[in-house]
Amino acid sequence: MSTQPREPEIITITRFVNSREVAIEFRLEPWGDQFTMPPGAGFEVVARGPQGGTLEVESASDYIVVWGWVGSVLRVFHEGNELTIGMDQSLPVPAVPPGQSTREFLSKLLGD
């Protein structure tokens, strides 16, 4: 059993709405989970992770991408139904080099 104190965690809930008249792609990164988001639909993202981290969001005409921060796990809900696996089974975002976000690191690594 570890005797080290746990780092304080935060839990945030953020709602994303597809205001377009067509379905769009909704992605969670760095896990690569993808969901079709119907027109007018709202998805709630529940993020849990170390204090000091933030979600990053990328939006375009045909997609929304939500990036977790180092140590975080994300869950997505639509109309009260979970679209993702439970937090206890999800792998947290791995460490990235200091001064970089998860999105910045993977963009550099993958050349995006």
Silhouette: globular
Domain tally = 1
Give me the side-by-side strand order of the main sheet. Answer: 1-4-7-8
Rg, Cα atoms, Å: 15 Å
Average pLDDT, to the nearest integer?
Answer: 89
Beta-strand content? 35-45%
Count of helical segments? Answer: 1
Q: What percentage of residues falls in helices of 4 or more residues?
A: under 10%
Verbal overview:
By secondary structure, the chain is mainly β. The protein has one domain. It is 8% helix and 41% strand. The protein contains one helix and eight strands. It has one helix at residues 102-110, and strands at residues 9-17, 24-29, 33-37, 42-50, 56-59, 63-67, 73-78, 81-82. A four-stranded antiparallel β-sheet has the order 1-4-7-8, with no helix packed on it. Strands 3-2-6-5 form a four-stranded mixed β-sheet, with no helix packed on it. A hairpin with a 3-residue loop joins strand 5 (56-59) and strand 6. The chain is globular, with a radius of gyration of 15 Å. The termini are far apart. The model has no long low-confidence stretch (mean pLDDT 89).
